[in-house]
Write a structure and sequence with these properties.
With 263 residues, this protein is of the alpha/beta class. It has a seven-stranded parallel β-sheet with strand order 3-2-1-4-5-6-7, with helices on both faces. Helix 2 links the parallel strand 2 and strand 3. The chain starts with 9 loop residues before the first strand and ends with a helix. 46% of the residues are buried. The model has no long low-confidence stretch (mean pLDDT 97).
Length: 263
Amino acid sequence: MTDKRVDGKIAVVIGGGSGIGEAAARTLAVHGAAVTVADVNLGAAEAVAADLGGSAQARWVDVTDEESVAALFTGVTDDLGGVDIAVNCAGLNIPGFIVDLDARQWQTTIELCLTGSFLVTKHAGRTLNDGGSLIGIASLNARQPAAGFAGYCAAKAGMVMLAEVAALELAPRGIRVNSISPGLVDTPLVQTLTSIPVIQDDFTENTPLGRNGRPDEIADAVLYLASDDSRWVTGETININGGAHLRRYPDVMRHLADLAAAE
């Protein structure tokens, strides 16, 4: 029998239509939470919610649109009586060297990863029940630089500090705010990279435990931070990367350039 560690809790998982977000939604639901699967891809969110069944529901959200973020949290609060757990898995990376990167490409990454995190934190912070938990999915790149990933690295590092500030501000209401920083996890977001053998091999070589992560392994950390198991944990970042932070980040841009030159 599954340990119902978040039984009776109301959870909102943003980016829950695929990847880590989907795994988080499934894990929270299995452990007793009423889960709202929110995603910019409403069809994907509806498919996950339908598969979860029970009290699960789907909603559309675009984290770069403040009105939609506010509507998500007020809508769930109106329908279900509150929100206890909020998980933000929205993310995007547009690679490019700093000297070549178009400002609009930079801004797109910052708006989705960092400003979107701010908007989620703002409106989750307003609506979460006292004693609630807010969890952001950051990245190994919050601490480990990667050539060609300037916008993503800066945004994810900013997410971690934003969570620490929010942890201070929301602590009087007992709301805990934490981050999870995964390494390379097998999700649709990274398939274009991991499908290239030389890039996958470089990631494996620079991960001491010798493999990519799985979405369910990140979801287990989400469950920990969402439950009373972490009742005295706030302003923390859990790094889950198979030890990749101990080595170097693969030179993805060089590999792509070499492949292009060989064509």
